[in-house]
Amino acid sequence: MKRSDVIRLAQPRPRRFLPGVFFGLLSALCAVGLLATAAYLITRAAEQPPILYLSAAMVAVRAFALGRATFRYVERLVSHDAAFATMPELRVGVYERLIPVSPDGLGRSRRGDLLTRLVADVDEQQNIPLRVVQPVVVSALTAVASVVVVWVLLPAAGVILLVGLAVAFALGTAVNAWIAGRAERELAGLRGDYQAGLADYLSQLDVLVAYGAAEGRLAELAAADRRLTRAQLSRAAGSGITSALVVLLAGAVTVLTLVAGIPQLGSGGFEGPALAVVALVPLAVFEVFGMVPLAWSAWRQASASAERIASVVPDTVPAEIPVDGPTAVRPAPTGPVVLRLRGVSARWPGATADALHDVSFEVRAGDRILVRGTSGAGKTTLAHVLVRFLEHRGSYELNGFAVSEYPVDAVRQVVGLCEQRPYLFDDDIRQNLLFARDTASDEELLAVLRRVGLEAWVEERGGLTARVGERGALVSGGQAQRIALARAILAGFPVLVLDEPTANVDPDRADALVEDLLAAAAGDERAVVLISHTPVPQRLVTATLDL
Amino acid sequence: MRPVDPRLLRYAAAARAFFVSGGLLALVQTAAVIGFSFLVTQVIVRAIAGEPLDALAPTLLLLAGVVAVRFLAGWLADVNASRGSAIVKSELRGRVLTAVTQLGPGWLTSRNATAVGVTTGPGLDALDTYFAKYLPQLVLTAIATPLIVVVIWWQDWISGLIVTLTLPLIPVFMVLIGWATQAVQTRQWEKLSRLSTAFLDVVGGLSTLTIYGRQHRQAARIRAVTDDYRSETMRVLRISFLSGFALELAASLSVALVAVSIGVRLIEGGLGLTVGLFVLLLAPEAFLPLRNVGAQFHAAADGVAASSEVFDILDAASAASTEPTAATPDAASAAPAGPLVSAASGLAVRGLGVRYGDTVVIDGLDAQLRRGAVTALAGESGSGKSSFVAAMLGFVPHSGELVLDGRSLSSGDRDWLAWSGQRAVMIPGTVSRNVTLGDEAPDETAARAALDLVGGGDIRLDTLIDSSGDGLSGGQAQRVASARAVYRARRLDCAVVVFDEPSSALDAATERDLIGSLRVLAGEDRAVLVVSHRRAVLDAADEVIRLRVAEEVGP
């Protein structure tokens, strides 16, 4: 996905976008009009004309005051609604591009963080119409309108205002991009260093304190903090320079306009009230114009987000990720399944070496196969090959046919996986089970929960409607594995792969969990492939494969 | 949210200096605003009265000077604010880390370490808006608004009255509308938060959905949920934008009223143009800082919410330091235990009690860890094995006492103890750095010997490890962690060595090696405690302490 695709998806259609610009412009023009008519009213009133002459100006002043606030309120509502309206398209657009590469085309480590970031980046995109395009368009149109009015009153003043605005635009853009952009680049690295050190320190605190090494690490962190703070201090001069420059230019334009306007007084119908208007209008115009530097900051953030989205979501599916070819037409096999691997190797996208080397084994109904190996031996890689998250070399057959003859979704109807960190949706237990088989009745759900040893736990929490919290925050590692297994049993996979079910479980509960899981998963002629780095009693398995 | 959290000034002394310099700059800015309005009025009025450009040149030059001052003061105020923000954040970060270290690992495990990290890092960055945008405007409001109102009163009391009457309307309306918004938001909070996390939930669970073949159906759900989110959010925004509306309306209507009232009195001749124009230019400036405060309010509130979590940690630390608890590490630790020979000596645990709130985990436990013996600690999950070890380490508050060879130990003194935890925590760097952790003069030979003893003969001392443990397998990391305890025990001649589940990632053969090394340590006249549920380990121990799940006492 390209950055421009992301940005284009985030841009509302004109029909939705233009009303916001329209009301924004009205509000800005009212702000300028309020100061202009007030200045005119007062200077003209000093000439003591009959009050009738000024009643229109008095009405206008009040109307502009009301208009400025009202139109601004309408503008914010309309433009937010328009920005929100792009979100479904953008979210679905990104999501649909994620499907073919998920999960293994998205990078192997810290995938959770990456996706959290991705979602935040997608939501950041609504700032492009809201805080970038809209303010810039409104400011530009207001500037043009004001220059025209001032030019009609006094051409020289119009030129001064135009030049002043142009300089403000150039400075606001260039200085802002140069100073702030450089500061952000420089600080990002230092901030990352500190953040990484901090996370390490907190996760190692018990060991550091127990070994009397905390003080030394604290000193290292303090040094990283000093480097970061020193960089921030030296960058402080850049902050606020653009908005201060806008104020400077507004004042300069007023002074220059007065210098140009005073000699013209009395000639060609240019009288006192007109002088007050041309001298004071720039103040209001520049106040509106102050939105532009802010728009550039918003743009930098949003476009960096768009860049990250583009880099995460690939244009093409890497060769290591399986896609359905023209021969992938077989329906999912039914009945007993035989799964055979001969000389299978596999590697992760972007990796230069294979993570899985030359593996051969066979799985038949009722088998319970233990796969052992140290970290890095390719245990998880094997699991991902089996469920077709990763492409392989060598032969992988289902009931005698190469898996590439089945659509990947058909293979996944036969081979299921309980991941190392099962994902639990922020919903109740019922919904977390139902998506595995949405026709299941409550009785069936409770039966499967009993089978995985969660009946008492669910009852204690108030039944199937108990929530599991965001990312399963209310559930321990062992319970998450049991819920994941309950899901897999409901889905009825003939072959089930359990990837390190005890990885996030207390050691003194791990052995019991493995026994429970194997006991619950077995039966129904189901074949189980258990991947584990911890020892598993031999009586629980029918065969062992060492990687 | 309170305008200024008093804890900010208490915990970040640097903030006070920036408040003072910010206040001085605000004073200069206010003077420049008043001067600018006054001089512009002078020039226009005198020009209309017929004075030529030459006569006005000095005033115009003065005006240009004021514009320059206004630019400089505004810029410096921003620089001051962002410097203040950087220094205050640094000060708070340092204090939080000291506080967390002081509260100790026991406290940290009761929290989420990642959350504490986020609070201290990016969480504090949310203070930037508060410091750099909100506080300066608040200071400006406190200084500029009253000064300008006084000047308006002094020039024209009727305009002064109009401004004085409309100004208080702004906070009043904002508070009223804030309440209304909060009511709507509380009503819809659960719905809104569910809708806002729904997309994250689908994307985060994409691999799980793919396993179940449900990935294709989610697009329609995302669309529906996002549309719902939009309409629900708009319902809240319609009310919360009202506060901005009230603010703008009060400000602009007040200017309009001032303008019309001045206009009418000018026509009647009751007022001079000099006063009229001056007041007209000043009136919006009285409202400007207040409007900016309103505009930054929500961003600032986020920053304050983030910083209040930091202050909670600091409050907890200062509360803990005023009452003596075992969780407080004592920097000035006692001298290491001297050479001991008596085989009957060792560590006596007397009346040990650990409770978390109302839950009693260990109640009046007596135990003896003999020098020269391997003692196993067993018990089901939740029976207090980890709490027992944490109490020995002084990580959790506890009652009772630990007596080593007849000498009562003070909490925070850990030189008698070498410990290897359940989690094999790796420090980024070499294996050697990990094994010799805490030793200022590392001894490679001793490190090698320690590794060899725990069955880590195949692990090289110069292997690089990163903090996630990459570089070693799980079993290797566990042996490095065990070797760390052995190294410390020998270097400091620790009387007690504790291993917490040292063999959970080991196969049977390596486990046997490990048991052998426990025996060797005990043979060096140390008391060895091993926490384990493994049959082989329990069988090999000289003594077994069995813990039972304590009865819960009612609240």
Question: What does it look like?
Answer:
The complex is a heterodimer of chains A (547) and B (555). Chain A is an alpha/beta fold and 547 residues long. Chain A folds into two domains: 252 residues, ABC transporter type 1, transmembrane domain (ABC transporter transmembrane region fold), CATH 1.20.1560; 208 residues, Rossmann fold (3-Layer(aba) Sandwich), CATH 3.40.50. Chain A contains 19 helices and nine strands. Chain A has a five-stranded parallel β-sheet with strand order 6-7-8-3-9, sandwiched between helices. In chain A, a hairpin with a 2-residue loop joins strand 4 and strand 5. In chain A, helix 7 packs parallel to helix 11 and helix 10 runs antiparallel to helix 11. The longest helix of chain A has 49 residues. The radius of gyration of chain A is 34 Å and the shape is elongated. The mean pLDDT of chain A is 88. Chain B folds into three domains: 192 residues, ABC transporter transmembrane region fold, CATH 1.20.1560; 114 residues, no CATH class; 201 residues, P-loop containing nucleotide triphosphate hydrolases (Rossmann fold), CATH 3.40.50. In chain B, helix 7 runs antiparallel to helix 9. Helices cover 65% and strands 10% of the residues of chain B. A five-stranded parallel β-sheet of chain B has the order 6-9-10-3-11, with helices on both faces. Chain B has a four-stranded antiparallel β-sheet with strand order 2-1-4-5, with helices on one face. A two-stranded antiparallel sheet of chain B has the order 7-8. With 555 residues, chain B is α/β, with parallel strands linked by helices. Chain B contains 16 helices and eleven strands. Chain B is elongated, with a radius of gyration of 35 Å. The chains are: A alpha/beta (547), B alpha/beta (555). The interface between A and B is large, with 135 and 138 residues.
